[in-house]
Amino acid sequence: MGKIVVNLDVVMAQRKISAGALAEKVGITPANLSILKNNKAKAIRFSTLEELCRILECQPGDILEYKE
């Protein structure tokens, strides 16, 4: 069975942005950002994904990946 993998840490490293700074700009708690980064999230709001993409200047596919 496949799963969705969150590559947020990779995109953050490429953009040289810290978790604390990103959480603040997106408007989520550092704890929730950590849950996302560590592939523990069960869901993500489109509004959160949109903000991540806006701030990181990327596409949803840069952050989310489907793996078998």
Which tags fit this structure?
434 Repressor (Amino-terminal Domain), single chain
Architecture overview:
With 68 residues, the chain is mainly alpha-helical. It has a single domain (3-67), classed as lambda repressor-like DNA-binding domains (434 Repressor (Amino-terminal Domain)). It has helices spanning 8-15, 19-26, 30-37, 46-56, 60-63; strands spanning 3-6, 64-67. The protein has a two-stranded antiparallel sheet. Helix 2 crosses helix 3 (30-37). The longest helix is centred in the C-terminal third of the chain and has 11 residues, at 46-56. It is globular and about 35 Å long.
Question: In the residues, how many domains can be counted?
Answer: 1
Series of H and E elements: EHHHHHE
Mean pLDDT: 96
Strand residue content? 5-15%
CATH superfamily: lambda repressor-like DNA-binding domains
Identify the strand order in the major beta sheet: 1-2
User: How much helix, percentage-wise, in residues?
Assistant: 55-70%
For the record, the CATH class is Mainly Alpha
